[in-house]
Amino acid sequence: MTTTTENILNVTLLEPRQKHPTIFARFDELNEGESVTIHNDHDPKPLYYQLLGERGNIFTWEYIEEGPEWWKVKISKRISGKEEETLGQIAVEDLRKAEVFKKYGLDFCCGGKKTLKEACAEKGLDVTMVEQELQQADNVFVSRPIPYNEWELDFLADYIVNTHHSYVKKTLPDLMTYATKVAGVHGQQHPELYKIKDLIDNVNEELSGHMVKEEKILFPYIKALVVANANEEIPQAAHFGTVQNPINMMEMEHEMVGRNLDDIRVLSKNYTIPADGCASYSLLYKMLDEFENDLHVHIHLENNILFPKALDLEKSNTQPLHGTELVAQ
């Protein structure tokens, strides 16, 4: 039976001027995949940023214990060639962590290709705090999560249409109706409502054409790729070339809709109902909040799961499937 000895460094036993140099030396001695756990009598957060600045993004940082007497942090050296996960990849592995991203305003769907460090740096967020909450999310008990990442692509495409496209088609007309009504009643006192109404109209126009292109062209193409792959057939070439081309268009349109919803959230001050807000005012903001949450999952399923897997599936074939050209509706 093989036993391993935990690599622990108690920095409270060191003179102040020796602490960081000793930690750096111990870290530099690590092989890839190995870790050192430091014990300290205060939060060593400044060390995180010094290590990042002087050694680069080659480590992970995990709080084991956080006071009041001891702070214990496990610092591991990354394995070469193993890139840091993006926000989208983190959400794919565990959608519970999307709640942490939402809390801090981190875009895991349209902006899902950024790493956590990049996204936090852009917003001026304390990355150690966000990482800590992501780790704590692992311990949150919920019912079995929906295994989106395990589904076949044809099933996932149908799920997106039947669940999220149907929701958008059902909800957007009501959103436009209430936005018009609330702006007409409260617009003079709250002129931002006119802009919110215009943004909702833009979202409706953008998504209406967007969903048609997905349902009539892109999703059938992806489903045909699945069939060809299952039957070990050679798919025909598409008029739009590689599936990367329509995917680029869909992702660009996702970003446009996402920016509109971001603007609505800012204008509404995070959907805060003013003191003179009526029941319709309250309902409008409640519907917008729910719509935004649904759209985050909707775009996440496409940008971070369906589209990357479709690209991989197409690459595994000798040539793409011959289909209808993707044109603007």
Question: How would you summarize the topology of this molecule?
Answer:
Blueprint: E1 8-10, H1 16-28, E2 35-40, H2 45-55, E3 59-66, E4 71-77, H3 87-93, H4 98-103, H5 116-123, H6 127-137, H7 153-186, H8 192-230, H9 244-267, H10 279-315
Parallel strand pairs: 1-2
Antiparallel strand pairs: 2-4, 3-4
Helix pairs in contact: 3-10, 7-8, 7-10, 8-9, 9-10
Describe what this molecule looks like in 3D:
By secondary structure, the chain is α+β, with helices and mostly antiparallel strands. It folds into three domains: 8-77, Translation Initiation Factor IF3 (2-Layer Sandwich), CATH 3.30.110; 87-137, no CATH class; 148-315, no CATH class. It has ten helices and four strands. Strand 1 (8-10), helix 1 (16-28) and strand 2 (35-40) form a beta-alpha-beta unit. Residues 320-325 have low confidence and may be disordered.
